[in-house]
Amino acid sequence: GAVVSQHPSRVICKSGTSVKIECRSLDFQATTMFWYRQFPKQSLMLMATSNEGSKATYEQGVEKDKFLINHASLTLSTLTVTSAHPEDSSFYICSTGQDTEAFFGQGTRLTVV
Amino acid sequence: GQNIDQPTEMTATEGAIVQINCTYQTSGFNGLFWYQQHAGEAPTFLSYNVLDGLEEKGRFSSFLSRSKGYSYLLLKELQMKDSASYLCAVRDSNYQLIWGAGTKLIIKP
Q1: Interchain contact A106–B (C-beta under 8 A)
Q2: Per-residue DSSP letters for chain B?
């Protein structure tokens, strides 16, 4: 099956700084990439959907100027958390998929101090 | 609105069988997924149902009834490593995944 490589797996940053998370599709042309956020003991919450070569579609309540998504190629999508605050600390996961299965990156544990 | 319901937590004994139910109300239906997620890790794929009936894969089986908006995941011969959260997700008419909150399964010796 398709493999999605997500980096970094863990990151600690200072409040006010920016963090970039990368997701690479290793053997699959990811036309669409979904970005999720998961708080402890909660389910996955879709933040945005990115399509290669076009602007991302953000879910209601997600600030597009804070969570910058770039999907410049069929194998790479990035999420940049700008001016991070402690409340942005969460588990961020990317996902792409074929018809019968969604493939997930390994996830990024972001801690903002 | 769209809604996926599954129990918050279940407890079962090692070696036994457990059934985790999932009911859904979504705008359209293009398949139902079950994922396993250990704490701090990404979900891993367990099963996919798009037609009514039972899909069996080793110790895990998944059942779907589209008319009832209902699915279950059946885990047999439970092992301690099966302690995890089990997420039910439905793909709607826009091909977006709608996720349940997950069922935390606790396995006791």
Answers
A1: yes
A2: --EEE--SEEEEETTS-EEEEEEEE-SS-S-EEEEEE-TTS--EEEEEE-SSEEEEETTEEEEEETTTTEEEEEE-S--GGG-EEEEEEEE-TTSPEEEP--EEEEEE-
Distance from CA of B92 to the nearest CA of A (A): 13
Written as one string, the DSSP assignment of A14-43 is -TT--EEEEEEESSS--SEEEEEEE-TTS-
C-alpha distances in angstroms, A36 versus A71, B28, B70, B86? 15, 21, 25, 17
Quick: pLDDT tens for B49-81.
999 999 999 999 999 999 999 999 999 999 999
In this model, does residue B29 exceed pLDDT 90? yes
Per-10-residue mean pLDDT of chain A, 113 residues long, equals 85 97 87 89 87 88 94 90 96 83 89 96
Q: Which of A1, A6, A102 sits opposite B33 (nearest CB)?
A: A102
Strand-pairing partners, residue A23, are A6, A77
With a cut of 80, say whether residue B12 has pLDDT above it: yes
